[in-house]
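To: structure subgroup
Subject: Chain for Friday's discussion

All,

I'm putting the inputs and outputs inline so they're searchable in the archive.
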Amino acid sequence: MKELNIDDKMFTERSFMSEISKAKNDLVEPEEYAKRTNNEIRKEVISNVYTLYQKKLMENNALDFDDIINYTIKILMSDVEALEYYSEKFKYVLVDEYQDTNRAQFTLITILSARNRKYYSSRR
């Protein structure tokens, strides 16, 4: 926020982190988020922060919690051998609190279990 000269009285760190996490959970990357701002000032500011945040993570060779799932999805979707390996390794996928899964988590579950079509929720 300091680097972008954003007034912390108008925007809170928590609001940025919440919105960025929500975007990541919906599998929306910074470039796509920027396209969806609809010229709303608040969303444009969030877009700038999201873009810079991802750039800083990359520069520091770091991931946040949401990125762990999202990069796993990217790897599994782009590397057939990795997908085959993990699909074979995890023949069954048990999902606790399935009703609370977000899009990214659901995508990961679907990719991992597609080969065997064996996934179960602890709540039926």
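Points worth raising on Friday:
The chain has six helices and two strands.
The mean pLDDT is 91.

D.
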